[in-house]
Amino acid sequence: MSEKGIEKQTSRERAIAKTSFIGIITNLLLVGFKAAVGIISNSIAVILDALNNLSDALSSLVTMIGNFLAGRKPDKKHPLGHGRVEYISAMIVAALVIYAGITAGVESVKKIVNPENPDYTTLSLIIIGVAIAVKIVLGLYFKTVGKRVDSSALKASGTDALFDAVLSASVLASAIVFVATDGGVSLEAYVGVLISLFIIKAGFSMLKETLDDIVGHRADRELVSAIKKTICEDECVHGAYDLIIHSYGPKTLVASVHVEIPDYMTADEIDEMERRISAAVYAKHGVIMAGIGIYSMNTKDEEIRALKSRVISLISTHESVLQVHGFYLNKETKTVSVDVILDFSTPDMHEETEQIKKELSVVFPQYNFHVINDIDA
Q: What is the CB neighbour count within 10 angstroms for residue 363?
């Protein structure tokens, strides 16, 4: 990694640590105020809200620890760093959110079965109102920083904080209704059940997003297009295909790609081209090019160009075919190699590929065809 890359990574780690620390302090203060209000007013909703803020403080602590572990330098066992630890910390945050939602739901149901009337004061309502404003600001701050530094854990914490604001607003609304009706209508336990369901749903959404990061998902289309554009800007490249990006943490992306180049290029020219491409991609996009494969493009025979056009046209008649590339004809062995990308909805990709191969062999019996099914990554 270059000095500029290291500087950006360090800046990102500092931003996450600072944001997490602010979250811990803010949530602990809210825990103290809300717990006091809940105990004095005998309100289960406010007490549960305080416990929820305590889980938020733990979430921020987990994010901070995860950021510290993820920021450790690469070593012999982990040559690409420890960035994926952030995905684990985000998953723990999601689990804490789910736990908080389940706890809130259980306690709310208990209060429905055995109701107790709270005793709200004007001061307690004001404190709840201020807490709502603080959680909204904190949630927006977390999400803004999370998007800026691409931290799943911070974005998850931001979403959780905004849900907490909704929860607190519901508690405040039920308290106002209780006071306005002179204790005749107590909705806080029912509100607690409803909001707990929203919290649990949000937690599972965060968990799913993090699991997608761990399992591996389709790379961002804009990033893929931008990298391919950068690669194709090289004068030797006539096409970029099969770009696959692996994530070893939000800021550690490793990629491989196939490029189509003229068949007259020498080994030293190819070597220089690969080095130019790798440097350009890293400088513009911060992505490490781990491998650049080669598709040789026939340039010396007009007859081959005409054949290429006919082969691609025939293959493209199949509805399942998304792209055809990598065509090359070896005139000595009369072997044609071509890659196809099939839609994931294709019932049997192997059978479809074999069918394409048979059709080509019927139309062009003088050639041997190697049809390779590429991944739509």
A: 11
Map residue 50 onto helix, strand or coil: helix
What is the structure's pLDDT at 368? 95
Residue 341 has a CB neighbour count (10 Å cut-off) of 19
Containing H/E element for 299?
none
Residue type, 181: T
Q: Which amino acid is at 168?
A: S
157 vs 140: CA distance, rounded Å: 10
Q: Tokens at residue 76, please?
A: 């012999």
What whole-number distance in Å separates Cα of residue 149 and Cα of residue 155? 10
What's the pLDDT score for residue 9? 61
Q: Looking at the DSSP assignment, which residues form a beta bridge with residue 288? A: 254
Please give the structure tokens belonging to residue 49: 């809200």
Q: Which residues are 56's β-sheet partners?
A: none
Nearest to 61 by CA among 11, 99, 24: 24
Question: No. of H helices and E strands in the chain?
Answer: 10, 6
Residue 211, token pair as written in the block: 């699991």
pLDDT band at 319 (very low <50, low <70, confident <90, very high): very high
Report the predicted TM-score, pTM, of the whole model to 2 decimal places. 0.67
Among 334, 337, 331, 336, smallest CA distance to 373 is for 337
Sheet order of strands, 368-374 included? 321-330, 335-342, 368-374
**Is beta strand 321-330 parallel, antiparallel or unpaired with respect to 368-374?**
unpaired
Q: Of the candidates 361, 303, 354, 358, which has an alpha carbon nearest to the alpha carbon of residue 331?
A: 303
Other C-beta atoms within 10 Å of 334: how many?
11
Q: Is the pLDDT of residue 39 over 60?
A: yes
